[in-house]
Amino acid sequence: MNGYIQIGTCGLNGSKAAYAELFSSVEIQLTFYQPPRLATLEKWRSEVPADFEFVLKAWQLITHPAKSPTYKRLKRTLSESERVDAGYFKPTSIVEEAWQVTLACARTLGAKTILFQCPASFSQTPEHISNLIQFFSQIDRNGFNCCWEPRGSWDKQVVKDLCEELDLWHVVDPFVQSTMTPERCYFRLHGREGWRYQYETDELADLAELLPKEDAGYVFFNNSRMKQDALTFKQLLKNHF
């Protein structure tokens, strides 16, 4: 396997320096709920090696409506109009502001890749598709990889066409559905029977077979045994591929 595959966990627990001794990449969660101050992110960047890669989730004000339970962790108080205008990639000032904040976070962390995780309520409707196309057609990506995780009911061909048109990576749990961008994979492992799950060795071997052989990709574990599973998977790739 000649592709450059980043392996890690969704979120950091404990020392960043200790984590960086085990993995070369992490998916940052805090930027989704409430982006930290840039000074805090600068400190994070200084605590890990220069080649360590931060991948971050875009601020929820871009993707999620204000009624989402995830807004409970939002420290900013939104006006009524902002609450109406937030989320679903709407062509509004609050979504544009959230993108600029996300962009500043990505630059500060030295990131290459940004994940846009959508709620299941962001379903395949003409309005949502229009918002998605307008957003990704108009933003200045500054060279970042933009990765889209649709979680509602979407037709595979529609997802494939949108990813091709908008130059997006399709983000999936590969044990739930297939990626429509297999040459640019971003896998998020949530546990096959729920969060309290540990992957078997043969399951991880199956996962390895899904990775691109020549291209880049990400594999982030988001289950209760995420650290252990990520380490096991990393060793498996090293030994057999």
From TrEMBL:
Domain of life, per lineage: Bacteria
InterPro entries with a match to the protein in the record: DUF72 (IPR002763), UPF0759_sf (IPR036520)
SUPFAM superfamilies: TM1631-like
Protein name per the record: DUF72 domain-containing protein
Lineage: Bacteria, Pseudomonadati, Bacteroidota, Cytophagia, Cytophagales
